Amino acid sequence: MKQMVGVLTAFFECSGAVKAYEAIFSCCAPGAHVVLIGNNAEPVPMNWAILFSKGLEYQTVHRYSHQYEPSLRLLESGKIDVKPMITHTFKFEESVEAFERAAEHRPTDVKLQIIIDEDK
Q1: What's the pTM?
Q2: Count of domains observed in the chain
Q3: Which domain holds residue 118?
Q4: Quick check: 90 and 115 in contact, CB under 8 A?
Q5: Closest by alpha carbon to 56, among 17, 9, 2?
Q6: Is 115 in a helix, a strand, or coil?
Q7: What does the DSSP 8-state code read for residue 77?
Q8: Is the pLDDT of residue 40 over 80?
């Protein structure tokens, strides 16, 4: 994470993990856009002094229903490429292994995916 200090201009937080929220302040460049997706199970402390001094812009998204189709259109058009975020791909037959790895919370894993039908 040291190499990410102060360089991100966009930060999408989808996990609800307190550690991820702490990273917002160290990773984001001044004026960065921060999107908080989902809902937290418990309150998350926020460092308001850094938020204001860096001029971070926040957007919250609680419901996904209006985001699903536009997201698929962006993916299909090639305007966004999520492939660099996929750390490892598992075959369907390896699903148990995939979930076991996800439970390990490896710091180098971003997204793990399971391929259901390799013909598509």
Answers
A1: 0.51
A2: 2
A3: 81-120
A4: yes
A5: 9
A6: strand
A7: H
A8: no
